[in-house]
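Example record

One chain of 800 residues, shown exactly as stored in the release files.
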Amino acid sequence: MTNTTLTLTLPVLPIKRTVLFPGILMPVTVGRERSVAAVNASLKTEEKMILVVAQRDPSTENPGFEDLYTIGTKAIVKQVATAEDGTIHALVQGIERVALLKVDQTVPFLRVQVRRLELTTDQDREVQALQRAVQELLTDLPRVIQAPGIEEAAAAFRKEENPATLAYRVASLLNLTVKEEQNLLESSSTIELLRSLYAALSKEIQILQLRDKIASDAQAKIGKSQREYILREQLKAIQQELGEGEGDESELGELKKRIQEAELPEHVRKEVDRELARLAKVPSSSPDHQVLRTYLELVLELPWSKVSEERLDLAKVRQVLEEDHYGIKEVKERIVEHLAVLKLNPTAKAPILCLVGPPGVGKTSLGQSIARAMGRTFERFSLGGIHDEAELRGHRRTYVGALPGRIIQAMRRAGVKNPVLMLDEVDKMGRDFRGDPAAALLEILDPAQNHTFRDHYLDLPFDLSQVFFITTANTLDTISQPLLDRMEIIRVQGYSEREKAEIARRYLWPRRLKEAGLDPEQVKLPDDVLDHVIARYTREAGVRQLEQMLGRLTRKVALTFADLPADVQREPVTVEASVLPEWLGSERFMPEEARKNIPIGVATGLAWTPTGGDVLYIETTLLPGSHELTLTGQLGDVMQESARAARSYLWSHAEGMGLDISRFKRNGVHVHVPSGAIPKDGPSAGITMATALASSYVGKPVRSDTAMTGEISLSGLVLPVGGIKEKVLAAHRAGIKRIILPKANEKDLKEVPQEVRDDLTVIPVERIEEVLPAAFDRESTSQADGLTDQSLPSSARARE
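Predicted structure tokens for this chain:
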């Protein structure tokens, strides 16, 4: 038979993932607006005819004529049911093949003109042979398609005499793709149709046989823990038979593609290729498979050659540092100096900066500011509490759960090979049987070695020479000397009360208001109230406690506003000094009123602590009938030795200083430093102990407005000490007006803010003979039995 020229116009029902064959009854769910309109239009006709045709792309939601295949099936709508959401569930039966000619209308639904197509039928031996071959394969159909009633259907198929009807009915039950089904529908002759069906049916039978073979081979290994393994083996065998296992979509192919696109150094690429070859041989169910894959992904994620663009504008650097931090001018200038060298010589090794200072002075935020000013990525991690060297250098891959070290992990997070990397709390590392982390840092922080840093997990040389390392510490005492030699030490000193007030106004108070959800216009903090909070509720070198107190104030105000009804206008609140005891509690620190009149045998010293400076009172008393020197107050060895040296010097020079030597022979001495529960040590209290002992021996009090610090030698020299800025700030906070310092420490006074220096009288001394006249009131010394100007050497009288 030949194709007829008869044409007709039908509404179109596009379907997505299947094809309707002639003679097949198929349920469809219609939800798209145009498709619903097409079904309704067909129902209004007497014949209820509709054109069912497959879409080329199932993701197209509003297909046009060009989105449909050119051959479809004319069908009759048998049954219709409408759901509550407007979706139509219809039962359509294919009648015959038709070819789509042209569009008749597009709105409200697609209607096209079609032409009937008939199969070319050949009653020759080849058709009969193909039909019998298909019917023989149908004996395995119940195993191919495991569905209720399939055995009865297979038996009926074997009795079917019309080869085209047999082909369409069998094809509708096979698991074919839309393209394969469409090829069957577009077959122009019975021979072509049967050939295509036989090939598809044979492929399904082969997949069935392969599945049975895999199942039988793996049957002995079936167990609860191996279920996943069997499923993967089945999938792998099926993919190999279908030729789909070697594509770029596979896991191994995707990994190969990433390795080819990565810009890896040659020595790294060789190692990666070797590990990739190992991965290809390892079964996916093996634990080594995941270890190798994780390792390769780490290598691909590391920035072997990626560098961030650097902008070294010193004016911008100064601007950023000034915006982020108030004061600490010397620290900022030191940082700018290092960056200036990098600007003039980009190939120079980046310095290893070590910011040392008390808690809360802004060491970590300085690192963030440096990174922002340079335009580099910033990463940080803390070294505090680390005891295991593997935390920095990683674990070898032979260990279960091995991980790369923190350095490599930080580089992976940064994504570039030249970040600013901050190592916090470098002074708080420990060491035990697992190794010494400080020893691992020696290579990491050495510019001559870190260009080939080897992490134990990575086991490849990684270049750290372009990293800008910054470390922070509260003290240098616990850091090993070899590690200190590799770092540029920058000391970040504490702040004066005026600097704290300015920092609070610029940074802390606005930040706390924002965190509490308050506007600056809603809450006012007068200057005198802020000064009161600084003086009476905090005593620190930094501003961390101050920020906590300001946070408590903003929370109290936020609670007051939150308790108001929504329709009540919020009036601005001014924090008064009278509400501080209620909101912040009792004042934590009080002026030393009891020390305004210092008794005999007591001298005021200055001490350095990790949280800043402090005022230390050293008390002495004579013990008649004794000859011993008693020391209490948890004094360390160095401090005890300072007390013995001070007593020995006064005793050996008693005649020259006008002291009664018999008092040394008849009396022992007890030296006590209050706050006895706190351990104390260091040589800074030497001249304070000598002054307190001298006060006991002459029976006269030391001036209450004078504090002192300095180490004493057995020959009477006053030697320099550290922490001058912190000690001077502590004296200023305590209301001290006069300070006695070693002359060698005069240069350290430039670190003290000018407004603090203006409020103090600083007396530089070189020998103990200069300390004693300056420590005692002039009126009392002129009337005393000893320590008069006439009994001192001429050099001491001239300086006094």
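Notes: The chain has six domains: 7-117, 125-215, 251-301, 314-491, 497-584, 593-799.
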